[in-house]
Amino acid sequence: MDEVFVKVNGEMHYLWRAVDHEGEVLERFVTKRRDRKAALKFLRKTTKRHGRPHILVTDKLRPYGAAMTVIGCAEKQETGRWINNRAENGHQPFRRRERAMLRFRRMRTLQIFVAVHASVHNHFNQERHLYSRSNFKLNRAVALAGWRQFGGA
């Protein structure tokens, strides 16, 4: 789990994201505050949809620990200097699209964009370093064919 600052119409908001061990975005949530109440709401939403985690890797932000104490899974939290890198690096594709769109004007558009961007990115995200060029092109073609079938085009 991780959060990132996002400016919406000049006002600071927080994008909370849950990422699995492979880098796929599981859940995303936009709030105006970065406190225990927001972390608790996000954690409950995530566990309701995806079940209780075996291990929950976070940064050392205090609201995470407070929220996990309320839920009763504080012993499953792991914090460390570089443990959270998968979630931190997962913000980069979002930041590139945000810059291209010239930021956001409303919180609702940010929430819609994040939901769509995460699902599209998860569908096309191929770990290129694990495949040869021919296998990568084949996997990308299969993903694109599935996307076209899903979109009805």
TrEMBL record:
Pfam families with a match to the protein in the record: DDE_Tnp_IS240 (PF13610)
Matches recorded under InterPro entries: DDE_dom, IS_Transposase, RNaseH-like_sf
Domain DDE: 1-126
Protein name (database record): Transposase-like protein
Organism: Sulfitobacter undariae
Lineage: Bacteria, Pseudomonadati, Pseudomonadota, Alphaproteobacteria, Rhodobacterales
